[in-house]
Amino acid sequence: MDAIAVIDIKNSIVVRAVAGKRNKYKEVESRILAKDEKSPLEVAAVFYKKLGIRKIYIADLDAILGNGSNLEDVKEIKEQYPDLEIILDAAFAENNSPIPYLKDFLDYAVIATETAASFSFLKELEEFNSRIIISIDLKAGNLIHNIKQWQDKNLEDIISELTNFGIENFIILDLATVGTAAGISKYIKELKLNFPKLNFITGGGVKDYRDIKELKRMKFSGVLIASAFHNGSIGKREVALIENDDVLYQAAWCITGAGHLLEESISEIEKILAEHKKLKIDIYLSKAAFEVLKIYKYYHRLESLNCEIHRDNSASSPVIGRIYKGYYDLLISAPTTSNTAAKFVLGISDTLVSNLFAHAGKSKLPVVILPTDIDENLVSAAPDKEVDVFPREIDLKNTEKLSQMADTIVISKPEEVESCLKEYL
């Protein structure tokens, strides 16, 4: 999946699009741009250098509105960054062929339902079919077009008709959601299900990575992003995640300082990673967990999993922000000591693991917990022998209270994580 940065150009200045109200577009304001960086080249440079973007969508608003064009600005971007692929909407139509630009510098030309008076000229573009993208322009679910024979046709029939020209690339965009952070419209996702083999790019309303990961799993070929880049909710790390086709799901797995069920939990991580190739697990260790893993000689085994391992250096670790950016589909704590379980129950969040649990609750991220104190009599593995353990009444009560918390599942053995994954991933 491609993370495609959007640049809207008007009078050689980049503007911010909001809900398709082009008469109200203002100069872009951004956390990632310097105050005076407004030119298309400057904005493209920031996307390229700071975010690692390698594909941009440019809407030449002057061309779309019939007020001239900004093609020289677009060409300048290509000259400065030749490996930056450009998708251009410049009101290409029967009387404004994209062929000269495709032969000169352009990577992809957009033919938009909003501006094209006819699509019969697609026959003339046959040799460029792989570089032609049809933009299905919608507003509040209604197709924007001026083609009489489409008046009584539904969207599915129109797309099918366009594929008869050999076109496989489409942008499906509802202008009413652009710049609103309202999320991708449900009917656009349903449309993709009806055309699984076509290359669909969508966008408009993307708030953060949570809005994108479902599109990625549905095999959209690209997502258009503008506001989420400028306000900082999606950055370079998220771009890499969007474009990493080897990762469709992510889980955060916390390990606390218990010897009981520790080896079994590590074995379960190994098993899950082997069976779920598109799942990435990030591992979070409490301070005691790091010590216990060393004592039991399991730390190198954990390192061999090639997972990201985060140790508790401070309770307010920046990685907790990943929860709010929507990285994770599930938070797992296994094994969970009585100390950590008590903190979970009491709402204490003064460690990395307890803080992760607290913020998972605040963001409604599902949690799976494997407490060590689940029975009145336990046999636990110490470093050199097995020992009898008798959990206190308060420990067993805390386990019960955990099972009553919202979005929380309490399990009794590590093997149960697998069934939880199937439910949430």
TrEMBL record:
Pfam families: Flavoprotein, His_biosynth. Gene3D superfamilies: Aldolase class I, Flavin prenyltransferase-like. The keyword Membrane does not apply. GO terms for cellular component: cytoplasm. The keyword Amino-acid biosynthesis applies. Keywords: Amino-acid biosynthesis, Histidine biosynthesis. Pathway: Amino-acid biosynthesis. GO terms for molecular function: 1-(5-phosphoribosyl)-5-[(5-phosphoribosylamino)methylideneamino]imidazole-4-carboxamide isomerase activity. InterPro entries: Aldolase_TIM, Flavin_trans-like, Flavoprotein, His_biosynth, Isoase_HisA-like, RibuloseP-bd_barrel. GO terms for biological process: L-histidine biosynthetic process; L-tryptophan biosynthetic process. Residues 252-407 form the Flavoprotein domain. Belongs to the HisA/HisF family. This is Archaeal flavoprotein COG1036.
